[in-house]
Amino acid sequence: MSGRISLLRLDYAFSVLIPLLLAIFLNKLNLFHHLDILIGFLFLAITGNTWNDVIDMKNPEDMDTLKRVEGYHPKEIFTIGLASFILGMTLLLRTCLQHFLNFIILLSIIAMVLLYCIVFKPIPILNNILLNISHVLLPYFMIKIDANLPLMRGEEWTVILGFLCFAFNAQVVHEVIDGEAILKKLSLRRCQIIIQISALITLILGIGAVILTNIYYFFPFIFFPLGIMYTFRRPTTSTKGVKDVGLLSGNFLLIYFLCLIALQMTGMI
């Protein structure tokens, strides 16, 4: 059972779900009014993970992927992704029919993910920008549009920019640890500089978000860039343990936001 579940790579789903939950929390929305969007994106995240594995299965050096899909043919992994794609798109049909702009945004997200998998994955920096727009910014906008709200209000920009920078920072760390695109193109020293600068910007924006929104629940976000800055205080590829810490922390944040939204919906905060 654990082997079959690992094919879905659900431990990465937080990267898609947290931006949606952030939009719901910041704008004091009812989670259940947008549940189809949340679950729809969860299914699409599974699609992205499995279809990306289909591509990576062709690379004999990608031992992590080959170990995870051992005993499976590419067509079987593709079928899992296809099933989740159909389910996800069906759940997202409601908001697309009610809001044509969300239909355009959804098509843009799908196109960006495909471009990332096929073209931009080996290109450092640009690949992360594409991921951030498709996984963070556009899904956030979809929730706002679904709730008939303006895309942005003053203090929201600080929160979103901080989150985008945090996501960029985390993805660069992920690539360095796995020896992917950025480490193949840049030296460890340059990777360290990029990580330190993006972590510092994240820290500044995080502090600004707490002050401007007056929401102390954002305070824990200040510690994440500090941890990254400490971990990469020297040029190093670090260890796989750091990657696991990042994945666990991301899932902790997912639970954290679900708790905040539940408290908000019951009028506790």
Short synopsis of the structure:
The protein has 269 residues and is mainly α. The protein contains twelve helices and no strands. The chain starts with a helix and ends with a helix.
Task: List the keywords.
269 residues, mainly alpha
Record the SSE blueprint.
Blueprint: H1 2-6, H2 14-26, H3 35-56, H4 63-68, H5 74-98, H6 100-120, H7 126-146, H8 156-178, H9 181-185, H10 188-213, H11 223-231, H12 240-265
Helix pairs in contact: 2-3, 2-7, 2-12, 3-5, 3-6, 5-6, 6-7, 7-8, 8-10, 8-12, 10-11
Largest sheet: none
Low-confidence stretches: none
Q: What gross morphology would you assign? A: globular
Spatial extent as radius of gyration:
18 Å
Overall structural class, as computed from helix and strand content, comes to mainly alpha
- Roughly what fraction of the amino acids lie in strands? under 5%
- What is the percent of helical residues? over 70%
Q: Write down the overall mean pLDDT.
A: 88
Order of helices and strands: HHHHHHHHHHHH
Count of individual beta strands: 0
> How many helical stretches?
12
**N→C terminal distance:** 39 Å
